[in-house]
Amino acid sequence: MSVKVAVVGAGYLGQHHARVYSELEDAELVGVVDTDVERAEEVAEKYGSTAYSNYRDILGNTDALSIVIPTTSHYEVTLDCIRAGKDVLVEKPITVNLDEASELIREAERMDSVLQVGHLERYNPGVIALSHMIEEPRFIEAVRVSPFLKRGDDVDVTLDLMIHDIDVILSIVPSPIKTIRAAGFSFITERIDEARAWIDFDNGTAALLTASRMAGEKQRRLKIFQPKSYMELDYQRAEIRRYYH
Question: Between vectors from CA 88 to CA 84 and to CA 93, what angle results, nearest 5°?
Fold first, then answer.
């Protein structure tokens, strides 16, 4: 039996959610929602679905929804969907603050709904392969920078870009965080556009993270140093280089 799914938000990422659902044998794309009706109709027609301007109009005809809208609206829309008894995949970051995220988790548990956040780098083939090579990471360096794309600027670059590397690093290092030091700067938007963070873990591992949305070119790299080897992951190519010493 196919799962009836709808995509809320038909922008840059939302169109890809719609495309993937339309290709899955066990999913039926029953709706594409966007306040820009013409855009919703364009994406819906392309992937054989129906356009809507309000997500509430589709709740009675869907089992699950992808929430792919500006982060500032994640909390309200996701909460409505959960309380309607639906399963939800919400794009990262889950919300703009911890209190809202915690409430969504509580409501999902109360309603027995699936609530998943779109941290797609977890499923990057390079990250999966790298996880089998890690033995004792001592220092990690992450760089995630892009030219300014005029999207995702409703939140700081830490929530827009760096959050991917935070998620991956926390899965790599089996230790609580000891301290965090960070600095950020605003250049193009009213939010933080470039940020650096240094994380110390209780087990002695350290991580340096850089994120920017005002770089000359797109880069996605992760370096891991451990006692007998050094590894470098290119997220975009899903390629790993490993050096022994």
Answer: 125
pTM: 0.89
Q: With contact defined as beta carbons under 8 Å apart, do 164 and 119 qualify?
A: yes
Q: Which residue segments constitute the domains of the chain, with CATH numbers given? A: 3-118 (3.40.50.720), 121-244 (3.30.360.10)
Inter-CA distances, 197 with 9, 14, 37, 141, 209, Å: 31, 30, 40, 10, 5
| Three-class SS state of 125 | helix
Question: What is the DSSP code (8-state) at residue 141?
Answer: E
Contacts of residue 86, Cβ cutoff 8 Å, sequence gap at least 6:
59, 62, 63, 64, 65, 113
Residue 19: is it exposed, middle or buried by C-beta count within 10 angstroms (0-12/13-18/19+)? middle
Of the candidates 156, 161, 163, 65, which has an alpha carbon nearest to the alpha carbon of residue 115?
65
CA distances from 224 to 133, 206, 212 (A): 10, 10, 20
| Strand, helix or coil for residue 31 | strand
Q: Categorize the per-residue pLDDT at 152 as very low, low, confident or very high, splitting at 50, 70 and 90.
A: low
The C-alpha atoms of residue 127 and residue 131 are separated, in whole angstroms, by 6
